[in-house]
Amino acid sequence: MAVYLVLSPPEASGDLRSYEQAAALRFVRDGFYWLALFFPLLWLLFNRMWLVFLGYLAAYGVVAALSAGFGPTLSWIILALFSILFAWEAGALKGWTLQKRGWQVVGLVNAANLTEAETRFFERAIKNNQVPSSNELTAKAKPKIIPRIGEERVVGLTLRD
């Protein structure tokens, strides 16, 4: 099962009762992205993750330059591990990018696929006889203990402010 981060757009009123508000929700899966492993630059551009794209280019260049001194075989292994690490963190980076654009976290859902995540999210809202507002779920979704490095919040292996 995967964990899906549910985000509402910045222009959302916070009331998810209308079809337009519900249809605008984004479900971002936290986990491994195969396309981000094999086609990281295209995946970043397709998802409009411009800052992450520039950061990926810079980080890949640094890793490639540092690993060049270890010989071709070990250098290839190090770059492959870097790509695998990026593919694992791609979902977190996608969520971070949307939050930087003003999207608000309205919930978390455990599900096997996107359809099941949507179903569980809205069933829970209907079962409680209400569709949760983004303010209510954002307050509940924040952890009590936030891991930090200095003043920066840490999510997975990436920094988040």
How would you describe the overall organization of this protein?
- With 161 residues, this protein is an alpha+beta fold.
- It has one domain.
- It is built from seven helices and six strands; from the N terminus they run βαβααααβααβββ.
- Helix 4 (50-67) packs antiparallel against helix 5 (72-100).
- The mean pLDDT is 83.
What would you say about this model in short?
The chain is of the alpha+beta class. Helices cover 53% and strands 18% of the residues.
Form type: elongated
Distance between the termini: 27 Å
Q: Which percent band covers the strand fraction?
A: 15-25%
> Count of helical segments?
7
Largest sheet, spatial ordering of strands: 2-1-3
Count of β-strands = 6
The whole-angstrom Rg is 18 Å
Q: Report the average pLDDT across residues.
A: 83
Proportion of helical residues: 40-55%
Helices and strands: which structural class?
Answer: alpha+beta
Q: What count of structural domains?
A: 1
